[in-house]
Amino acid sequence: MHPITPPHTVSLRVLFSFLHLVTSPHLPHLINPPSPFHTHTPPHFLTHSTHSLTHFSSLLLMANPVVVRFSEFYENWTGKLEDILQQLLQVSSQRTEVVKTEQELQALVSTVTSHLKEYYTTKWGIAHDNVLIFFSPPWLNPLENAQLWMTGWKPSTVFRQVENLKKGNVLVMTEEQEKKMEELKMKIKMEEEKVEREMERQQVAMADRRMVQLSKLTSRARSAGSEMDSVAEVAVKEVLAGLERVMKASDCVRLKTLKGVLDLLTPMQSVDFLAANITTLLRFNQWGKKKKDMAGTVLNANQEK
After folding, report:
1. Nearest partner of 156 among 254, 272, 273, judged by Cα
2. Which residues form a coiled coil (predicted)?
């Protein structure tokens, strides 16, 4: 297994923050800060030297129209996913009382997969405008962000879900199904490693001489002019294009994993699997929101003391 983080002192999170910074319209104010002799009040982020680059990047993200647009989409998409989950759970729990035909079950499975594809289609369209937001998405809660692997869920976790369903006798698979599932698992594992190697290569690229040169220009030059524009344009475009490739490659592995698993299961097994998979996804969303709200309440209480 190749490590995701190479032996460099450059933090990936800081590099993302730096890229947000150099592509921000506020950059000129940071390169050419107001004179200390000016009487006007300087921008808030210039009055506190302890503000980190990452914190400033977070402030930019919250006001980013691309973030706002996708956050609204994600909230609506998650709401529809909850409705779909209720349908899956109802069919799963009433399998003996209300018998569904294979065609009806397959239609329900298709509804789920179409909804999932809508997420990736929208994500890819927006990522072309700003891919960085998907590597640390502000619309996710801290618990969800902690589970991220290359902008989403890690494909191999699906096979742990399948094993848990088998142990609980929710999925009773034939010997042939289990053999093919194991083959798919090994194939997906190799696909994951391929994506991780590409991400490692991108991290190395972000830490190369041109990015270091760009960092020096943004921190020292007050009249960088065309030199900075030229270096920034080439370096940032290359990095963003590379990260977009990583994101799309990881999403393709996710979709390939879901399709591979569903192709091996019967329609009823697919309903049970999707119900468990979506339940896990939504639980992280709900638990994370609850913990975040509790933390906010405690923080506000402490500030009032």
Report:
1. 254
2. 174-201
Q: Which helix (H) or strand (E) holds 190?
A: helix 175-206
Which residue ranges make up each domain of the chain?
12-34+52-296
Q: How far is CA 167 from CA 58, 134, 236, 273, in A?
A: 43, 34, 48, 13
* Residues 296, 302: Cα–Cα separation, whole Å: 10
Which tokens go with 89?
């759970």
Answer yes or no: is pLDDT of 69 > 80: yes
**CB of 137 closer than 8 Å to CB of 274:** no
Count of H-run helices and E-run strands, the chain: 12, 0
- Reading the block at residue 1, the tokens are 């297994």
Mean pLDDT of 271-298: 74
* DSSP class of 132: G
pTM passes above 0.85: no
